[in-house]
Write a structure and sequence with these properties.
single chain, 529 residues, FAD/NAD(P)-binding domain, 2 domains, five-stranded parallel sheet, 20 strands, 16% strand, flavoprotein, FAD
């Protein structure tokens, strides 16, 4: 029986895991290698190679109502999209409120996690840690690895001939970036157009002599601000939209999306994306289109090679006098502390059952939390994983036998492994899948019969984390009120200047829901299947 649980990492996933352990009557000990909680959200000027942190100017891409822990909303006066300092403050509030810090051992590095000799019977692990130069060995009944996927910088220098042998400028990874001051007056080439590449290009354009942004991907750029000024994720991430995507042919869904994306600006004109492309990525950036339009950022194709001071691109063009090449090429995950037989079997999150459990283990007492990429908040997904995992450890939730888990994992993996492929999953799809396993998924049909107002808000409104606290273990008495008041909390920080003709625009959402009741009755039954 599981009682003592080791939690590795005190970021968002680690703090949620500690809380979930306590809720299930388990005894967690959280090991954090740095001097404070917060994980990547704790900014530091240090460029310590063992620790990844956000850069100075980072603002969240997901809104506060869609990013909070499911039973602990952000303060209503916090803005919808927050600077990293507010996110860290929120983590501290969460830790204090649920008394988590007494279970966290700071400046304690985990050196190894190995099966005990009697693992097939006990499922126990030997965990070796080091603090102040002193090593200590512990025995735990289960381990939750909460180190995330921002660990080892991915720097594909071999793919760019000349970058190591000829190029004489500065070359660095975005992990080393802290602010724009070191780049003043320089000509900078940013390689990679993910969220980080887009953000850094925009920021550097304010001080650099010129910024070039190189990409090989078709990329759709979205704004955080959607219809009527509400956050994009609150408007778009709904069960109604999720159902439509499931019902409609994928080609039609893609066409509708592309038309919507192009309603802001024509991506083909900007060289970003073509509606004919079947493979594409989406990034959040409110300023990149203007930077491209004003010429402060210049979009370029993939780099073919580097010379001493220039970059030659695949279209045959050359940009001279490049001072800095900044690789925004992402990260690789690694678990160097896991014993070889376990760690080597984890190629990516599809090597894990439900992206959590290594299926080959005789006892399911090791869980990888937060190794996911979702179309919404990873923090919310990690908390849901932790709720299910601790339920498994406590004996409330059951897993299928290892053979069935292994079969499901093999079915989901492609026959040929592709380098750097880590599929982004639907936020609602993944959350609902894990919620079903944990017994906490709300029933729209049942709510339509017992609480129509709440059912409409759940189905047509944002699929916010509070929905997963309405039923099942760990249900929260404040979940209903949080759902029905989420639009008001979104508007609250904007009420710094109230005009005479101001009205509560969120009330129009309620009227829309009432008018849509017949559709909800039909769609709700389809959705429940």
């Amino acid at each position: 029986m599981v009682r003592r649980v080791a939690v590795i990492g005190a970021g968002a996933a680690g703090l949620a895991s500690v809380k979930c352990c306590l809720e299930e009557g388990l005894e967690p000990t959280c090991f954090e290698s740095s001097e404070d909680i917060g994980g990547v959200w704790r900014y530091t000027d240090s460029r310590d190679s063992r620790r990844v942190s956000v850069y100075r100017s980072v603002i969240t891409n997901t809104s506060k109502e869609m990013s909070c822990f499911s039973d602990f909303p952000f303060p209503q006066d916090f803005p919808s999209f927050m600077h990293h300092e507010l996110v860290l403050e929120y983590f501290r509030m969460y830790a204090r409120h649920f008394d988590l810090l007494r279970h966290v051992r700071l400046q304690t590095r985990v050196l190894s996690v190995r099966k005990r000799p009697d693992f097939t019977a006990s499922g126990q692990w030997e965990v070796v840690t080091e603090a102040d130069g002193v090593r200590e060995s512990h025995v735990f009944d289960a381990v939750m690895v909460c180190t995330g996927h921002y660990q080892e910088p991915y720097l594909p220098l071999a793919s760019f001939p000349g970058i190591e042998s000829r190029f004489q400028g500065q070359c660095l990874h975005s992990r080393e970036y802290r602010d724009m001051q070191d780049f003043r007056g320089k000509r900078v080439l940013v390689v990679g157009i993910g969220n980080t590449g887009g953000d850094l290009s925009v920021e550097l354009s304010r001080v650099a002599a010129k910024v070039f942004l190189s990409t090989r991907s078709h990329t759709w750029v979205l704004s955080r601000v959607s219809e009527h000024g509400f956050p994009l994720d609150m408007v778009g991430t709904t069960r109604f939209n999720h159902l439509l995507e499931w019902l409609l042919p994928s080609a039609l869904t893609r066409r509708i999306k592309f038309r919507k994306f192009n309603s802001w600006f024509n991506h083909t004109n900007y060289g970003l994306a073509s509606s004919k492309s079947s493979k594409f990525k989406m990034i959040i950036n409110d300023e990149l289109p203007f930077c491209l339009l004003s010429g402060t950022v210049v979009l370029k194709p993939n780099v073919k090679e580097f010379t001493e001071s220039s970059a030659v691109f695949e279209d045959g063009t050359t940009e001279e006098n490049i001072d800095v090449v900044l690789f925004a090429t992402g990260y690789n995950f690694s678990f160097p502390f896991l014993e070889e037989s376990v760690g080597s079997a984890i190629d990516d999150n599809r090597s894990l059952y439900k992206c959590i459990f290594p299926p080959q283990l005789e006892k399911p007492t090791l869980a990888i939390i937060g190794l996911i990429q979702l179309t919404g908040s990873i923090m919310v997904g990690a908390e849901m994983q932790a709720r299910w995992v601790t339920g498994v450890f406590a004996g409330w939730n059951k897993l299928p036998p290892p053979s069935r888990m292994m079969a499901e994992v093999l079915k989901s993996k492609p026959p040929v492994k592709r380098q750097r492929e880590n599929l982004k999953m639907s936020f609602i799809g993944y959350m609902d899948k894990i919620a079903v396993c944990a017994g906490v998924k709300p029933s729209v049909v049942r709510l339509l019969l017992t609480d129509p107002q709440l059912a409409l808000a759940i189905f047509f409104g944002p699929c916010s984390p509070y929905q997963y606290r309405l039923v099942g273990r760990g249900s929260w008495s404040g979940a209903r009120a949080a759902i029905l008041s989420q639009w008001q909390r979104t508007l609250k920080p904007l009420r710094t200047r109230v005009l005479a003709d101001s009205s509560d625009s969120s009330s129009s959402w309620c009227w829309m829901c009432l008018l849509a009741l017949p559709a909800a009755l039909t769609a709700g039954f389809l959705f429940s299947k």
